[in-house]
């Protein structure tokens, strides 16, 4: 598309999009997988990639088998859109309700299935990046969700614009800007009716809390929160770098542990750094983020010492003895305990077996 033919809004959109590509490191990539739900955010992301990204683009869509068959129509829409634009589309069908793990919510199960499909697609096509359609509104909603959950200062960052191979090309766009862009260029999308319902916490924040704050406290509330996100992002990056250095210093290999730290050095570390290390280790293992209360509980246990087990996720425990701190599958913990009992030792730590 000739730059001279672009209208002002499209020129600005191109500028923001390419700035994100440069910051996030995928501007010159050979290709990218675009997560395509069929909603406005993902369709806008795919359209911008089609227009302004020179590498190969492959779309990935997950049919969740939900909403009385509407998810199947979403999949057909995604296929049709990609045919029209000459883009390869990888569609996977997963009954999210049927594949939920024990204690896993529908939202968690759906997210897990989506990202598994995105990663599978990236591997199949040998593409280095996965683009998802999170926008500026999503950042603010996530900040408020994290604030309510007590995830601490790091939670006020909202959504990072890049995490590993996951990038967010439209993180600087508001939801309204993306839809205006699609309308101006005659691009259709599918709205998920459940986004207008307020049964889920995020939807309550989107549909009730943020509009109330803008009407009653500050009409520029979203810009304030985005500025806070950028400030916190710089500070958390610095803290994360310090945590990575500390992790390298205390980590060691001890099968069957997923990760293990030497216990002795932990006693000398300040609480803030140790908490950051715990968050970093959890992220490295793709574990759920602990709330501030749970993080403080785990920190207290580390300071107390002795022998203990702490449930981090459904099947992952953090286990401690004076020899070390380890993250293990519960099945491996139980195997070690069984061996200890057979020897008449009732509280063997995981590495003593």
Describe the overall structure.
With 353 residues, this protein is α/β, with parallel strands linked by helices. It folds into 2 domains: 3-135 and 161-195, Rossmann fold; 251-352, 2-Layer Sandwich (Uridine Diphospho-n-acetylenolpyruvylglucosamine Reductase, domain 3), CATH 3.30.465. Helix content is 50%, strand content 13%. The protein has 11 helices and 10 strands. The protein has helices at residues 8-24, 40-52, 70-85, 106-125, 136-149, 175-184, 201-216, 221-250, 271-284, 292-304, 330-342, and strands spanning 31-35, 56-63, 88-93, 129-131, 162-163, 166-167, 259-262, 308-311, 316-321, 324-329. The strands form 2 sheets. The protein has a 6-stranded mixed beta sheet, sandwiched between helices. It has a 4-stranded antiparallel beta sheet with strand order 7-10-9-8. Helix 5 (136-149) packs across helix 7 (201-216) and helix 8 packs across helix 9 (271-284). The longest helix is centred in the C-terminal third of the chain and has 30 residues, at 221-250. The protein is globular and about 65 Å long. The termini are far apart.
């Amino acid at each position: 598309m000739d730059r001279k033919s672009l209208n002002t809004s499209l020129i600005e959109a191109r500028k923001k999009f390419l700035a994100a590509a440069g910051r996030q490191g995928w501007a010159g990539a050979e290709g990218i997988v675009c997560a395509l739900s069929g909603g406005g955010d993902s369709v806008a992301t795919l359209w911008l990639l089609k227009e302004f990204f020179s590498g190969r683009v492959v779309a990935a869509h997950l049919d969740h088998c939900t909403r009385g068959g509407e998810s199947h129509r979403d999949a057909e829409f995604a296929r049709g859109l990609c045919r029209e634009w000459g883009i390869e589309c990888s569609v996977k069908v997963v009954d999210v309700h049927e594949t939920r793990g024990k204690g896993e919510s529908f939202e968690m199960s759906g997210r897990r299935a989506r990202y598994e499909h995105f990663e599978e697609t990236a591997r199949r096509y040998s593409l280095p990046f996965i683009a998802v359609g999170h926008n500026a509104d999503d950042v603010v909603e996530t900040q408020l969700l994290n604030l309510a959950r007590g995830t601490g200062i790091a939670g006020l960052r909202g959504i990072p614009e890049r995490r590993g191979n996951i990038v967010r090309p439209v993180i600087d766009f508001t939801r309204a800007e993306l839809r205006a862009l699609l309308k101006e260029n005659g691009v259709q999308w599918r709205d998920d009716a459940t986004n207008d319902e307020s049964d889920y916490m995020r939807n309550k924040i989107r549909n009730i809390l943020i509009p109330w704050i803008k009407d009653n406290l500050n009409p520029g509330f979203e810009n304030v929160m985005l500025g806070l996100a950028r400030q916190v992002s710089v500070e958390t990056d610095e803290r994360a770098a310090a945590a990575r250095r500390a992790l390298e210093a205390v980590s060691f290999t001890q099968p069957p542990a997923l990760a293990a730290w030497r216990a002795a050095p932990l006693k000398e570390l300040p609480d803030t750094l140790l908490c950051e290390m715990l968050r970093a280790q959890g992220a490295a293992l793709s574990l759920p983020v602990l709330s501030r209360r749970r993080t403080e509980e785990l920190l207290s246990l580390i300071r107390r010492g002795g022998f203990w087990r702490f449930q981090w996720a459904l099947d992952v425990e953090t286990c401690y003895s004076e020899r070390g701190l380890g993250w293990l599958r519960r099945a491996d913990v139980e195997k070690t305990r069984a061996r200890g009992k057979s020897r008449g030792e009732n509280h063997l730590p995981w590495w003593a077996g």
